[in-house]
């Protein structure tokens, strides 16, 4: 799944993001609005991962949505 689709259907995907990254709050998800870079920053903030590792993790998650 690409990020344009995720951003366009953000309401549908918020629950899936929350399942994957449970430390994110509802306010975090509202702030991200499906934007990849915003989500990377929020995951980094809550989990303390490097930006590259977080970006990779998000991209792998998005790819898995197609399966």
From TrEMBL:
Listed Gene3D superfamilies: YjbJ
Protein's UniProt name: UPF0337 protein yjbJ
UniProt cross-references to InterPro entries, sorted A to Z: CsbD (IPR008462), UPF0337_stress_rsp (IPR050423), YjbJ (IPR026042), YjbJ_sf (IPR036629)
Top-level taxon of origin: Bacteria
Signal peptide: none
Domain CsbD-like stretches: 4-53
Family recorded in the similarity comment: Belongs to the UPF0337 (CsbD) family.
Pfam families referenced in this protein's UniProt entry, alphabetically: CsbD (PF05532)
């Amino acid at each position: 799944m690409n990020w344009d689709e995720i951003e366009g259907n953000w309401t549908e995907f918020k629950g899936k993001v929350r399942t994957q990254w449970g430390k994110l709050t509802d306010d975090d998800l509202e702030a991200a609005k499906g934007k990849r870079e915003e989500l990377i920053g929020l995951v980094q903030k809550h989990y303390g991962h490097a930006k590259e590792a977080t970006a990779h993790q998000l991209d792998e998650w998005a790819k898995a949505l197609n399966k």
